[in-house]
Amino acid sequence: MAKNEVKKTQPSQTQSHLPEHGPIDKDGREILLQVRNVDITFGKGENAVRAVKNASFDIHKGETFSLVGESGSGKTTIGRAVIRVNPCAAGEILYKGVRISGKIPRSLDREVIRNIQMVFQDPAASLNERATVDYIISEGLYNFHLYENEADRVQKVENIIEEVGLLPEHLTRYPHEFSGGQRQRIGLARAMVMEPELVIADEPISALDVSIRAQVLNLMKKFQRERGLTYLFIAHDLSIVRFVSDRIAVIYKGDIVEIADTEELFDYPLHPYTHSLISAIPIPDPKLEKHKVLFTYDPSMHNYGEEQPELVDIGHNHFVRGSKKEIEEYKRTREAGIRMKSITILNDEEMAAYEEEQRNKEADLSGSNYILDTPIHDSGSKLFAILGFLLPILALLVGVILKKANYLRTYKMLKKGAIAGLIVIGVLILILAILLVIAAI
Q1: Share of the chain above pLDDT 90, in %
Q2: pLDDT (tens digit per residue) in 23-37
Q3: Which pLDDT does position 410 carry in this prediction?
Q4: Alpha carbon separation from 390 to 387, 397, 416, 432 (Å, rounded)
Q5: Cys-Cys link to 86, which of 80, 117, 342, 353 (CB 3.0-4.6 A)?
Q6: What are the residue ranges of helices labelled H in 228-323?
Q7: What is the pLDDT of residues 329-371, one digit of tens each?
Q8: Are 279 and 342 in contact (CB under 8 A)?
């Protein structure tokens, strides 16, 4: 990983074509993809949601780099930004040292599409139900004319369909005639027939049966060995990620909180959120699983104040996000060289005491509103804005009461309508005053 992962960099020059090789880092490895200080925002104004915040990482040629986090953390958003579906609000994405985010020449855009392919999470929704398997796999070949003649196209399609474990006679069928695992194989064949260098695998096995998952993963590793592929593997299940990844980045609510080599991350999960993810990995033994205590991550445990946390290299190719005080603690912990205990197993007596403690906590919280930060009826309907416009003074008074009760959406709509109403009343009063003055003259 290069230093540009955690520091601001100058914008890169846009070229019309991709070079044969990417830049080389200090360890002599070729950097295929660079994500530099990327922000991705959806919506505008008050409704804007910052889905990804200042994300930075490098992916080296030939490795499997995994992006792990819970649902809604921004994993897929980053993957879609790499294939130029989601625009970057800030920062840049470079492929082989060439900026591919933002506005780029058409020739470069076609090369990016050709070299970066994506395998989607839902094998049913990602395939055209009205097209045959033959056309689905051939579409990229048609668009980029990656065949010499019709016989060559047919040969390429039949070869790739056999490589993913299906038969040539399947080419005349439609996606609905296949199982979930077979559909994912078709999606994989569609990506691989383009002979890409980088494949973004967006939770490619989460929708599959457990018995099929290993087959698809083995197939992906086979393609990587034979073709020298590079993977950006997006997942939420660390138990799977551990066995397919060279390096792992952990993301929480748009912030990348930790990046490290796979075994380094599992031996020394320094950030509390990483610790919580590892503790949630199921244990095959049901007796041990029953006595396991989950580590729950609480963001309020960080006291950043006005200090902005940063992603810092603490050595051992290990990056952790935190304040200066936290980073120093992480460094001391890592340099101690003692493997961290991520999973706690209690005996029967300890488990009984722990469950009693949890029941007491639930009883203490049962009468409070801690479960709902925002009341369920706080819809923020536009009707409140109309009401505020018609009765601005009353709306502001009611809004203050609702704000204290945490009805924030309703309060905002009342306030917006009341302000508009007061402005209109003010303008009418001003016009009336002018007319009275004119009449008096």
Answers
A1: 54
A2: 998 889 999 999 999
A3: 86
A4: 5, 14, 12, 19
A5: 80
A6: 238-241, 262-267, 272-279, 286-290
A7: 999 999 988 887 777 777 777 777 767 776 776 665 554 444 4
A8: yes
pTM: 0.76
Q: How many CB atoms lie within 10 A of CB 54?
A: 20
Q: What is the pLDDT of residues 55-85, one digit of tens each?
A: 999 999 999 999 999 988 999 999 999 999 9
Strands of 6-89 (E only): list them: 31-42, 49-60, 64-68
Please name the residues in contact with 191: beta carbons below 8 A apart, sequence gap of 6 or more.
Answer: 117, 118, 119, 199
- CB-based burial of residue 136 (10 Å sphere; 0-12 exposed, 13-18 middle, 19+ buried)? buried
Indicate the pLDDT class of residue 327, thresholds 50, 70 and 90. very high
Burial class (CB in 10 A: 0-12, 13-18, 19+), 35: buried
Tokens 């299940």: give the residue: 237
Per-residue pLDDT band for 239 (boundaries 50, 70, 90) equals: confident
Model pLDDT, residue 427: 92
Per DSSP bridges, beta strands 255-261 and 247-252 are antiparallel
Cα–Cα distance for residue pair 398/288, rounded to 1 Å: 54
CA 58/CA 4 separation, integer angstroms: 9
Who contacts 190 (Cβ-Cβ below 8 Å, separation ≥6)? Answer: 117, 136, 137, 139, 140
Burial of 369 (0-12, 13-18, 19+ CB in 10 A): exposed
In the numeric block, the tokens 């073709």 are attached to 227
Checking DSSP bridges between strand 230-235 and strand 198-202, what pairing results, if any? parallel
- How far is it, in rounded angstroms, from Cα 224 to Cα 220? 6
For tokens 């041990």, what's the residue?
Answer: 288
**Strand 310-313, strand 319-322: pairing:** antiparallel
Using DSSP, state whether 83 is helix, strand or coil. Answer: coil
